Amino acid sequence: MERFVLILFPALISTSGASKSVYAQVGGRVVLKPPAINTYKYVYWRFAKEDGLQLAWRNHLGGTGINKDEPWTNKLTLPDESLVITNLQPENFGTYFCEITSGSQTLPIHSIELIKLNVSVSPAEPLLPGESLSLSCTADYRKKPEIYWLNPRGERIKNNQGTVTVRVTSQDDGMWICVVAEEKQVKMPVKVVGLSPAPLVPHYTSTSSPITVPCSIPPLITWEQIKAKGIHEVHWQFFPETSSGLISQDAQRLFSLSLAGPLSWKRDQPRGLSPARDPKTGNLDLTRKLARVEDRGDYMCTMKFKNGRTLNRTVHVEVLQIISSPGPHLLSGQQLNLTCSVGQPLPSDLHLQWFRPKQSAQPDLKSARLTIPEVSTDDGGQWECGLLQGETRLTSAAITLTIEPKLSVWMLVISCSAAAIVSLLLLILGLIIHRRRRRKMRHLRPQLCRCKKPKPKGFYRT
Asked: Where are the alpha helices (DSSP H) in 296-408?
């Protein structure tokens, strides 16, 4: 008869609950959160082992205890059940255990793996477009988490275990983000030397408005950093718009920046424009109090570096103008033609709108040409033509019309008669004055006589 021996092994039941991974960097701050609980009596936080070094505790009455020994001095706080660690150092990374008791019941111990992230950018100084950028994001953990990078436009970049190497453009300037295990995000700023983005649409102004041609260096980049990249030349050029609406290829150099000594602008063909006073602040704008029709065209701001790299920004300027025919001074009853234009057809998303004087009875119009068969004195005043994109006014031009009342036939006859009467009265008055003067001269004439024995000198006064 065979005997069976049943050996019973005691079950090894672990008291550990769910484990979680948290990622942080040296010098950073992290909040370790236990599982959500409704009520508790005691909360204990330990390091390295379930029964390891006790870091902090808290009870339901608000009592707390914090480990102040090295390497935890001035690093730990326990505002609630969560453990907050600041100024993380390499020795603070590892496994943390949270034990929670609720009355006589002890909940499963919750473990959190605090993993060190190594994030770096090379080079650290600002880059010129076309230069190489290297980004690295790795985790010190046996199980490699998924890591990828997002560029400033939010696009995911192909990488090799968290390492990225790219040739930068001006669009790479900004915040790059390392995403770890779809949870942790680490932001890394990257600076790319460039000029302010050119407007997506033409820069619109009018003959009634100031003109500003924008160009600037990003505010986070200093002039000293620009110099360190080997700046060689900075200048403005203008390509005027021809009568056919095309841009001329004959460039006019407007200003050149003198880099020797204090920064100052050298005027070449300024066209009445003025550059920003202190280019060291990064502001390279051109301005004038009022725009002119001949300002239409392309303005190019250029920075050249000693390594051969060049930065350009082109701003296309359109000037809105009102033309009045026969002119701004009219008589009541004359025909008036007003034309509002930038010199070429407008894009489909832009339109014009006329704004008449308050006393004028003319209807509101949204066309480039406005015709009034017979103007009245109520039509005098300021007329505006606005260039709008939807409800947004991009710019507006203005003209002031002076309209004199029209004279009737009777008013003309009366005016001519009055002028003739005044002229006749002035003539009569002049004749009277002339005759009186002649009489007075006769009365004052001296009496002369001839002597019997005249002396050689002739006549003598008696």
From this structure: none
Nearest to 45 by CA among 86, 93, 90, 78: 78
Q: How many CB atoms lie within 10 A of CB 279?
A: 21
Tens digit of each residue's pLDDT (9 = 90 or more) over 414-450: 767 888 888 888 888 888 887 777 777 665 555 555 5
The C-alpha atoms of residue 27 and residue 19 are separated, in whole angstroms, by 24
Backbone φ/ψ region at 437: left (φ over 0), alpha (ψ -120 to 50), beta: alpha
pTM: 0.71
Domain 123-190 has CATH 3.40.309.10: no
The DSSP symbol for 378 reads: G
Q: For residue 225, count CB atoms less than 10 angstroms from its CB and return exposed for 0-12, middle for 13-18, buried for 19 or more.
A: middle
Is beta strand 211-213 parallel, antiparallel or unpaired with respect to 109-122?
unpaired
Show the tokens assigned to 282: 């990064």
Burial status of residue 121 (CB atoms within 10 A of its CB: 0-12, 13-18, 19 or more): middle
> With 0-12 CB in 10 A as exposed, 13-18 as middle and 19+ as buried, what is 178?
buried
Q: Are 331 and 404 in contact (CB under 8 A)?
A: yes
Rounded to whole angstroms, the Cα distance separating 305 from 128 reads 9
What is the distance between the alpha carbons of residues 47 and 54, in angstroms, rounded to a whole number?
Answer: 7
What is the architecture of the domain spanning 16-116?
Sandwich (2.60)
In three-state secondary structure terms, 128 is coil
Domain residue extents for the chain: 16-116, 123-190, 203-316, 326-404
Neighbours of 165 (CB within 10 A): 13
Chain position carrying tokens 């302010």: 196
Distance CA 310, CA 46 (A): 58
SS (H, E, C) 112-145: EEEEEEEEEEECCCCECCCCEEEEEEEECCCCCC
For the domain made up of 203-316, the CATH class stated in words is: mainly beta
Q: Which residues contact 237 (CB under 8 A, 6 or more apart)?
A: 251, 252, 253, 254, 299, 300, 302
Question: CA 282 to CA 218: how far, in whole Å?
Answer: 7
Question: With contact defined as beta carbons under 8 Å apart, do 14 and 77 qualify?
Answer: no
Backbone angles phi, psi at 114, to 5 degrees: -90, 110
User: The tokens 């473990």 sit on which residue?
Assistant: 111
Reported as a single tens digit per residue, the pLDDT across 45-66 is: 999 999 999 999 999 888 999 9
